[in-house]
Amino acid sequence: MHISSRLCEKSDWAISGVTSDAVECGMTYITGHDRSQLVLLPEAVDDYVGSDNPVRFIAAFVDGLDLAAAGFGRVEPTLQGRPGYAPADLLKLYIYG
User: Fold this and answer.
1) Containing H/E element for 14?
2) CA–CA separation, 61 vs 70, rounded Å?
3) What pLDDT sits at residue 26?
4) Which residue blocks in 1-97 are alpha helix, DSSP H?
């Protein structure tokens, strides 16, 4: 496969779903999905989880806890840096795992 050093030439390879015919001199936009396509998955994650699944009890239990009083650190997010994961979400994952 030959990759040209010039940016404005067509190439014979595809870039993440964009064919070489769509690439003309420069970059292209990422195209969306066809709006007439039917949805194959449920619209909400709750549709995947049954009403009797233990994960619902775990979520309700952890949501009822006062994590700061229980000694969990970083319950309040800091104003600097990248946001971290919520301690309640990590506890739910730990208990479920």
Assistant:
1) none
2) 14
3) 59
4) 54-63, 87-96
Written as one letter, the residue type at 72 is F
22-61 pLDDT per residue, tens: 445 556 666 676 666 667 777 787 888 889 999 999 999 9
Angstrom distances, CA of residue 75 to CA of 57, 69, 94: 21, 10, 16
Q: CB neighbours (10 Å) of residue 62?
A: 19
SS (H, E, C) the chain: CCCCCCCCCCCCCCECCECCCCCCCCCCCCCCCCCCCCCCCCCCHHHCCCCCCHHHHHHHHHHCCCCCCCCCCCCCCCCCCCCCCCHHHHHHHHHHC
Please tell me the chain's helix, strand, coil percentages from 3-state DSSP, rounded to the nearest 5. Answer: 25, 0, 75
* Residue recorded with tokens 């840096």: 81
Partner residues linked to 18 by β-bridges: 15
Give residue for tokens 């970083």: 74
Q: What are 73's two structure tokens?
A: 């650190």
Amino acid at 53: N
